[in-house]
């Protein structure tokens, strides 16, 4: 093969090479032209034929005047062109896929609701973090449709499906079949000389046995190990010896702060534990009734080994030691007085979180859980007292979002998540009962924000099927924030606590608020007015029913 040194054009054997301006000037002489004669050039042999080395290195395309100029492009430039076309194609495909997913295409698809997965066999093979796949929002994601009337149609559909139906309470024998070990550990009766539910349990270990060696709370959490290290040191000092046997005092809480999250339960907990007659579990929120007894540490991590009831009872050993000291005192033994120290537990998930039921109980009730947390608590403690702290569900949801969202938090992002959650909730209530949707693990994990936690009346009515109304104290965070002294007096009276000195009362009521909103979250400002209007419409029928149940219009939250 022969090439022109200046333009790298492949020459045929008889080609006079007249198309190259550099080789053919006005006075061009092929015999005298050193370029055409090939002087001082280094031949390169490729494919067994000579090829000019500089022709490979130097490519000139600016003087090509025929179709042969197309071949002046080097192979590298052709590759660059092809690479650019591929990148452009990938960008266009990515746009089309993303647009279809988020409803950004010019011709959106119609709404399509995901199927409601109530079949436990489908969910048993999936991790909890993958449950969102069962609920897919429409291809035209309503999150991006910020048109209030459009979302209002979804809310109207949900409202039309609301029915408050009383659940059927399971009998005691059914509960025993579900949790036989728990019933074998907790007795039917407690010590008569103690206000708090306690009993003596025989301890069969010896002096070298670690009573907390297998406690799951100590094994899975480093921050609790210090507490259990202390309990190990003092354990033998608090055993009761009777007829050559050792007994340990076991206790359950006298009262539970059962909800709701982001409603001031931490502040109430911090103030109550300052009362001289109140003790709490070693951990503020054990979440045993709702999660740990099912083996749930974090919902996104799936299931671990189930925490036995003994691990839960260990959390009250610090308080049990103090109660035992009172029981062994002369005042109780000789004068017939009783212990007035009471224990509390403050897991804010107790009121509403029944998500694990589908994995452990028979699903024969059309998606509704056959057993709830309150059924078991009432079976062991029919006289337990329950405290509920609530706030405007609209503000609660925004606070919940700011606290738990990890990145890209904004009022706009919150709006989109609310709209998507409403769409998912609508898809559920179209086919299932309100209770089935509220307690459905799949739906609750799929919704970007926890709308269901603000449906207070649904949970309260279910608690009232097993507990009497006078055993439940319902407070509002708004009242607690404006008149803390009044709400704390309500709590003291409800728990039948003794009077306090002025100094003790001032310490409890004048302490700074706990667990307030973080500065970086406050800087994001309030939610969008449109979002607030949407949520007001959604929660209105539930708040109306709640006010009727409690005979208090303050729970309508009209002024907030």
TrEMBL record:
Key words, A-Z: Membrane, Transferase, Transmembrane, Transmembrane helix
Enzyme class: transferase
Transmembrane parts of this sequence: 78-97
A biological-process GO annotation: hexose biosynthetic process
Example of a GO MF term: N-acetylgalactosamine 4-sulfate 6-O-sulfotransferase activity
InterPro entries for the chain: CS_Sulfotransferase (IPR052654), P-loop_NTPase (IPR027417), Sulfotransferase_dom (IPR000863)
Keyword hit for Amino-acid biosynthesis: no
EC numbers on record: 2.8.2.-
Classification via Pfam families: Sulfotransfer_1
Residue intervals of the Sulfotransferase domain: 253-517
Membership in a protein family: Belongs to the sulfotransferase 1 family.
Protein name according to UniProt: Sulfotransferase
Gene from which this protein is expressed: Chst15
